[in-house]
Amino acid sequence: MTALTPQIRDILNWYASDNPGTRASLARILNQGKLGGTGKVVILPVDQGFEHGPARSFAINPPAYDPRYHIELAVEAGLNAFAAPLGMLECASEVAPGFPLILKCNSSNSWATTKDQAVTATVDDALRLGACAMGFTIYPGADAFFDQVEEIREIAQEAKAAGLAVVIWSYPRGGEISKAGETALDVTAYAAHMAALIGAHIIKVKLPSDHIEQEDAKKAYADGDWSTMAKRVAHVMQCCFAGRRIVVFSGGATKGEDSVYQDARDIAGGGGHGSIIGRNTFQRPRAEALAMLAKIVGIYEGQA
After folding, report:
1. Residue 186: how many CB atoms within 10 A of its CB?
2. What percentage of the chain's residues is helix, strand, coil (to nearest 5)?
3. Band (254; pLDDT cuts 50, 70, 90)
């Protein structure tokens, strides 16, 4: 293993209760790529085929129908890890042996009438593929949330025993949460905190707006300055054990380059650990995607 920098040693100390195998799996992600050793990460997730369908996800850039395209993109761009469902990893895993893989083990689809996800892969699958982490989505607020928590409790227990890390996508929705509330500051911070409480090593949430959704929370937020994204990111970090958990923020739907770069600057400015960015890269031509990822990496290196 690559020698650990002081930044990585500090981060791994947050997870002192984990066994050496799990800490080594985290170190694989943190030491990989152009940001290796910095404590910052950029991860390529490609689960959109499940969530939105193949044509909506890949028709705009046809080479992206091939799972190998994505892991090659992640490797060439010098990213920290590649996250995807079982079949995609099975098809692409031989492309870059040793590259950190995150097995996304539950998924939904655009036809679903309930806010839930099906478990689609196991810890044994992750070990067979040489993955270093399990990825799992929870929907705080949804009727299925409590079942999802029980599912990830069992998966996380098995994963940690096997030396794997746990990555939780925490996306509030359902129940009394409005559409605007799904990215409200109070709701996003609450969702991130719940992922930390469940035992996630790495937490993925969306960037929060300045909207406060919960009536009962408005007093707590009344005196704060939430006028900039960096300040809102800093609050999400604060809610993840005072910044003692790795938190990455999703890129969302495809948007203009300047918006993508500003997101990265705000994440860095608020003390976030990085970006987990999919559609904004793989839906662009390869050369454009590589240029974009290079600039994002440069922002986290403090160069842009």
Report:
1. 21
2. 50, 15, 40
3. confident
